[in-house]
Write a structure and sequence with these properties.
2 copies of one chain form a homodimer.
Chain A: E1 5-11, H1 13-16, H2 24-35, E2 38-45, H3 49-62, E3 65-69, H4 80-87, E4 92-94, H5 96-108, H6 115-118, E5 122-124, E6 128-130, E7 139-142, E8 145-148, H7 152-162, E9 173-179, H8 183-196, E10 201-209, E11 212-221, H9 224-237
Chain lengths: 240, 240
């Protein structure tokens, strides 16, 4: 049975303007690979209602899971929750269970739960909360969309909360060989090897180091025995 | 007049599997912002024909420019050029001008221009070549799609070749203020400020440092005078 599929949606004016560099995509990609869920696409869109709604609809229709990052804080530019609600035509309002989590958190901190902070308790009808052990304000899952914060420490904690609840497949395994020859020399034998192992995927990624060209060949698959076989062949083709 | 718009398309099994971290998106975002082109969306898709063709069609229809990264080398998994040709229903074959560039390069290196390397001279009908001062094999522009290599040093050199040929708008300027208060305290006054300056965009990005919460407020716009005004207001609202 093929693995479940997933897409990531980053709500990210900050990334598209070049002011900050996304860190969550790399973390999610590694976590999903370990869990046996295939990350098939990632999108970064602007903090605009139409862009977010359209992307949520397109990705949730095309993949088993969608993971979003960013735009669920207390400020006026945090519109992700409302957009996800709209994408599924659900009502959204402050929900008692989310409000109780925030009340307890801000009581402990002796901080006022003001109108802005209360925005973080806006949860679409029918959603399940995602635990946030870092700063309390919860994420949520609506249909197949998991809505999480953009701050890396919180995003990672939320991924750790959600992933164990999702059925994974066989983890995708990979092995690689660094070959100190240009891709143009590697390409011919590698193509034949890839044809002989149609159940594995073969990628070649060139590098240049101290003026010399090389290729990292990466072999991926779910059967460790087949992976070992292909790697042995690769070592025979490119010894040393 | 609004700035030209752009999208980026990363052909990236390597990134989606979590094995490597994309570096080109951040570089392109910064280069486009300086040039006055608004990067509105970025997508990472798998090295699969359908995924690439669909994304090229969708993005080239929605934005003024599309910049692609990856998949134009000599190996079997380099399918970007063929996919871009298919997206625009163009023929693709080895083209004389591209072959001449490769011949000169590999002659200098005393390296054989074998069948695999010659694949890098496959250029869609009607495309314009993009200069590659690093490793010769050219990128190309077809319609509004600029096809570039994935290796960061080559990607960056190709961006530097292409950008001066594109009309930019007014560069998007930004200023930021680090406020050592939680977003929940910043949110109310910030919303009012954003309403008073509808020509600027206001983003708030929380951080946590040594146990204390803070917010980076970023103001963006094209008019330096308005930006200065808004920043002065922001300093008045959050002194110290």
């Amino acid at each position: 049975m093929p693995n479940p599929t997933a897409a990531m949606l980053v709500i990210g004016d900050e990334i598209l303007s070049g002011r900050t560099r996304d860190a969550n995509m790399h973390h999610l990609a590694q976590a999903l690979t370990r869990h046996g869920i295939d990350l098939c696409e990632a999108r970064v869109v602007r903090d605009r209602e139409e862009a977010i709604v359209d992307a949520v609809r397109a990705l949730s229709g095309a993949f088993d899971h969608v993971f979003t990052s960013g735009g669920i804080g207390p400020t006026h530019d945090d519109i992700t929750a409302d957009c996800v609600a709209r994408a599924f035509d659900r009502a959204i309002d402050v929900r008692d269970d989310a409000r109780a989590i925030l009340e307890a958190h801000y009581d402990r901190q002796q901080t006022e739960l003001n109108e802005a902070r209360l925005r973080m308790a806006r949860i679409p009808e029918g959603a399940t909360l995602i635990d946030n052990p870092v700063s309390a304000a919860p994420g949520f899952t609506l249909e197949n969309v998991h809505v999480m914060a953009g701050v890396p420490a919180i995003f990672e904690a939320m991924v750790a909360s959600v992933l164990p609840t999702l059925t994974g497949g066989a983890p995708m395994l990979s092995q690689s060989l660094q070959i100190f020859r240009g891709e143009g020399d590697v390409a011919g034998p590698l193509r034949k090897l890839a044809e002989a192992y149609p159940d594995l995927s073969f990628g070649s990624y060139p590098f240049q180091r101290q003026g010399a060209y090389g290729s990292n060949v990466v072999v991926r698959g779910q059967d460790p025995g087949r992976l070992d076989e292909a790697m042995a062949e690769l070592h025979r083709l490119f010894p040393g």
